[in-house]
Design a protein that fits this description.
Length: 240
């Protein structure tokens, strides 16, 4: 019996899997460049973007190893196969299974990176990790809207303070709009020695938590974080 079909099947499989993954990596590089462009326009996505990159790296590492095994195993089957004596059926089954797993994992990765809700999912995941680590110092929770209202009050106090002391830092050097991000406002406070480093760090952590809450669209936040926002607002008011 002629067993050339095994030779052609697995040699084609090795080439197809390698070409598929190469195309996948090209698409991933394009997605990363688009993500970087989005992050440059919205600095509140920095932590979420870092989480996504870390998640994608883990997935790609697994996919790279799986692809390598699939290609090597297919080539081994091609090498061991003979026209008069076909390679064992169990090895063919294992090789076919690994090839299919590599393609399936690649398709699953594609679906992940093009998911329009990837930022919300990443924010929710990071927020869950923050809460699991005890951020806020209490297990009690409060409505997210209450936290966001408190944050807006804090942000308004900082903006009013900067206006009063003429310390605005433009959002973009070539921009004519009077618009400033939260991070730039607290940077202005630190650069002009209006706050000490510990308070700046606290304001920075509050801002990061706010970004996670906003992009994650969660319903509840830790009560301790709400207290921290209100305490920070009190310290800004005390600056005069």
């Amino acid at each position: 019996m002629n067993n050339d079909y095994i030779f052609w099947t697995f040699s084609a499989a090795a080439q197809s899997v390698s070409a598929f993954v190469a195309l996948l990596l090209t698409g991933y590089a394009l997605v990363l460049s688009l993500m970087d462009a989005v992050r440059e326009k919205d600095d509140s996505l920095e932590d979420i973007h870092a989480s996504l990159r870390s998640h994608y790296h883990r997935r790609l590492t697994w996919l790279a190893w799986l692809t390598g095994v699939a290609i090597v195993l297919s080539l081994v089957i091609v090498y061991l196969n003979r026209s008069e004596h076909a390679v064992s059926g169990w090895l063919q089954s294992v090789g076919a299974g690994v090839d299919l797993a590599a393609v399936g994992s690649g398709l699953a990765f594609v679906v992940t990176i093009i998911d329009p809700k990837k930022y919300q999912k990443a924010a929710a995941e990071v927020l869950d990790q923050e809460d699991a680590g005890g951020t806020g110092g209490t297990d009690l929770t409060r409505p997210a809207g209450e936290f966001l209202d408190a944050f807006l009050h804090l942000e308004r106090l900082i903006r009013d303070f900067l206006k009063t002391h003429d310390l605005y830092v433009p959002q973009r050097a070539n921009s004519t709009r009077v618009s400033y991000s939260y991070r730039q406002m607290i940077d202005a406070l630190l650069q002009n020695e209006k706050v000490e480093r510990p308070l700046f760090n606290e304001l920075l952590e509050i801002g990061k938590y706010r970004n996670l809450v906003f992009h994650g669209h969660v319903a509840q936040v830790r009560a301790g974080m709400l207290k921290r926002v209100r305490a920070a607002a009190g310290r800004i008011e005390a600056l005069g």
